[in-house]
Amino acid sequence: MGSKFTSIVRVKKQALQKAELNLVRARNSLTRLSHDLDEARKEAANITIPKSGNASVLSQSMQFFRVLNQNINQIKENIELRQKEIVHFTNLYKNANIEHEKVKYLEQEDIKMQLKQKKRVEEHALDEFATMKFARDKNA
């Protein structure tokens, strides 16, 4: 049985699903970035700076180490951003869930009211039918 809230429930459910999808994407992105950070740290730990040799080799090693540290810092910034996004999307998901539940409740209540109204109309029709039959039987 349909209700005037059915289409609104559908829209709220879509909003809830979209919020959930964004939350899952942000969590997956955070996991990927954490893995990338671990890999970059392992790579930085495995770098050996030459103890002897010419200056250009030492300069290249130092430059590579600086680039790697910049990459680690960039990944850390992205992790912080994803953590903020997760908090944001979690709040959006909670609010969307509350809105969906509210409208779903209203839809259920509206359906109950429609059923009560329909039952009253049927009872009235049966009473009228019984009255007409009684009157016809009495006159016959």
What is the gist of this entry?
This protein is mostly helical. It has helices spanning 6-45, 55-139.
Explain what this protein looks like in three dimensions:
The structure is a single chain. The protein has 140 residues and is mainly alpha-helical. It is 89% helix and 0% strand. The protein contains two helices and no strands. Helix 1 packs antiparallel against helix 2. The radius of gyration is 34 Å and the shape is rod-shaped. The model has no long low-confidence stretch (mean pLDDT 90).
Secondary-structure topology with pairs:
Layout: H1 6-45, H2 55-139
Number of strands: 0
Helix fraction, binned, reads over 70%
Cα(first) to Cα(last) distance is 42 Å
Class derived from helix and strand content:
mainly alpha
What integer value in Å does the Rg equal? 34 Å
Poorly predicted runs are: none
Give the SSE string: HH
| Individual helix count | 2
> Strand percentage, roughly?
under 5%
Shape: rod-shaped
Largest sheet at a glance? Answer: none
What is the average of the pLDDT values? 90
